[in-house]
Amino acid sequence: MANPLTPEVLADPVALTRALVDIESVSRNEKEIADCVEEVLRTAPHLTVDRYGNTVMARTDLGRAQRVVLAGHLDTVPHNDNFPSRLDGDLIYGCGTSDMKSGVAFALHLAVTVTEPRFDATYFFYDAEEIEDRYNGLKLVAEAHPEWLAADFAVLLEPTYGMVEAGCQGTMRATVSTTGRRAHAARAWRGVNAIHAAAEVLDRLRAYEARTVTIDGCVYREGLNAVRINGGVAGNVVPDRCEVEVNYRFAPDRSEEEAQAHVREVFEGFEVEVTDSAGGALPGLTQAPAREFLAAVGEEPVAKLGWTDVARFAGLGIPALNFGPGDPNLAHAPDEHVEIGKIRDGAATLHRWLALS
Ligand SMILES: [Zn+2]
């Protein structure tokens, strides 16, 4: 099959978005799109190309003082009567238009057209972002070839509607348990009711005042919430155990260890078991490539409230932010679309930042 990513298409981020959307790449089926991307990167004499599974990367080696990464995932969620793409006025509809082939189009367009970037650039196209962690191409390369990702700054081209979303909050889940003593409900005084004891856990949650933390101008609002509660043995038994599952979203000035210590402190006197934890990412906007990126965008950054793959860059010691043309509210939706104006604006911004002239 002829590669639809022709030089003409690569020169135009709007046409490129459509062409990428029209290559089906639901998670675990990224071979075709990875082949097409790899082929065009290999024709560019200023790039060195590597591949790991269906993750493709290309880099310049111009001896610049700093290196930046532009990264995007190639996969999409399953189609929902929204494939292939269609044009409606200024909008391109289709699976992956927002999340995140319009962002991938930025990276691929820059990779082949900016032969003399101001920073050395690594363009990173990975697979399996939309499914379980263990398949994630960025995670796998970070484990197998961390040197491929070495950089001073990373831009993840996930949908942000043209805003700069910096850093991300961490998240952890923990089970807070109460214990009692079983008894027949008819002789309740012989037992200790563990569900009643959980009232104190809920009281502490209700009284909890979550922090609001400002870092590099980004405001992070924390939250500590009960998300599930489990208890009870039978309709005639005083229960001896109750478990309240809590989710703590924490600002990136706290490490995972500090977040755990905090949760244990809030529930002092109770049994606390951490079941899941992922650290956040500091916005890291004070370094030169990030500062110059903000200047090119010309807008104040906002905090990313969910957890994203920027935290994987943070785990490698690389400050990272999200910047993409798609509307994050439309990601994974049947009417997913992207505005052509946002693609043109974003591509112009990235050119201003990355190209020498
Ligand atoms: Zn995405």
Give a topology summary.
Blueprint: H1 7-10, H2 13-21, H3 31-42, E1 48-52, E2 55-59, E3 67-73, E4 86-88, E5 91-93, H4 97-113, E6 120-126, H5 137-144, E7 153-156, E8 165-166, E9 170-179, E10 183-184, H6 194-207, E11 212-215, E12 218-221, E13 223-231, E14 237-238, E15 241-250, H7 256-266, E16 271-278, H8 288-297, E17 302-303, H9 310-315, E18 320-322, E19 337-339, H10 340-354
Parallel strand pairs: 3-6, 3-7, 7-18, 8-17
Antiparallel strand pairs: 1-2, 2-6, 4-5, 5-19, 8-18, 9-15, 9-16, 10-14, 11-12, 13-15
Helix pairs in contact: 2-4, 4-10, 8-10
This protein binds zinc ion.
What does this structure look like?
With 357 residues, the chain is an alpha+beta fold. The protein is 30% helix and 26% strand. It is built from ten helices and 19 strands. The strands form five sheets. Strands 1-2-6-3-7-18-8-17 form an eight-stranded mixed sheet, sandwiched between helices. A four-stranded antiparallel sheet has the order 13-15-9-16. Strand 4 and strand 5 form a beta hairpin. The protein is elongated. The two termini are 36 Å apart. The chain binds zinc ion.
